[in-house]
Amino acid sequence: MSQLSSTETAPLVSGETPQAGISADDAEGEEAQQPQTDELREGWAAQMAEALGDGYCEHHIVCSSDLWVRVTRQAWVDAAIFARDRLGCDFFDWLSAIDWLPSPYGRDMDAQTDNPPQRPVESVEQGYGGGHTRFQMLLRLHSTATHTGINIKADLPDSDMSIDTLIGVFAGANWHEREAWEMFGIVFNNHPDLRHIYLPGEFEGNPMRKDFPLLARRVKPWPGIVDVELMPGEDGS
Question: What DSSP string describes 26-41?
């Protein structure tokens, strides 16, 4: 069972007053030397790791800020139930997916149109909590009692883009899962009504995937590119 974890110290909040007689620089240096702990979030992660066993992968904590926990796809529903029943996460915030693949089109903010794929895909980095696949599920829950949230992640292999529905745990997951199915092509097992929300029924493809071609950028300049105003002092020539 892998239970890797990492903890970061929350930065000094703008306007926060350091201890008397200690400069802001000294205070930040002291914080760097003495990493803070977050007992609540450390406790949440430890409890979930014990409950899920091999279904628990790793977690990441930003002290006094947030918690990310990554679980296996098979433990996805169990993690949500545990967060609801044992951690007091009674508020379903949102559910979605993310495609960590860097865009293969070579697009940047100054490009007026997308080009066909023209560069090799770089290595994929999966953000806080790590991961091993291009696609990940993301779930955000919140405890109204402790005012603390948790982000739950799960890897989805390209060969089987499916995961169990959370409707039985949080009814509000219904349209979130429909949106993720429509935009990413993820199938939610036992979902009672997977159908389009935004796109026509005959639409082919999944627009939120990084390799989905944005045809509008191929036929006309991207809105806002051609009428960008110069900054003061820039040469208009």
Answer: HHHHHHHHS----HHH
Taking only the tens place, the pLDDT of each residue in 57-81 is 999 999 999 999 999 999 999 999 9
Sheet holding 66-71, edge to edge: 4-8, 56-62, 66-71, 148-156, 135-143, 91-99
Judged on CB neighbours under 10 Å (0-12, 13-18, 19+), 198 is: exposed
DSSP 125-161: ---TT--SSSEEEEEEEEETTTTEEEEEEEEE-TT--
Nearest Cα residue to 100 out of 184, 174, 213:
184
Start-to-end CA distance of the chain, whole Å, equals 62
**Would you place residue 54 in the very low, low, confident or very high pLDDT band (cuts 50, 70, 90)?**
very high
Domain ranges of the chain: 3-219
The two tokens of residue 113 are: 């149109």
CATH fold of the domain at 3-219: Beta Polymerase; domain 2 (3.30.460)
Beta bridge partners, 189, equal 164
Q: How far apart are CA 122 and CA 95, in angstroms?
A: 27
How far is it, in rounded angstroms, from Cα 140 to Cα 152?
6
Instruction: Quick: pLDDT tens for 5-40.
Output: 676 655 433 344 444 444 556 655 555 555 578 999
Q: Model-level pTM greater than 0.85?
A: no
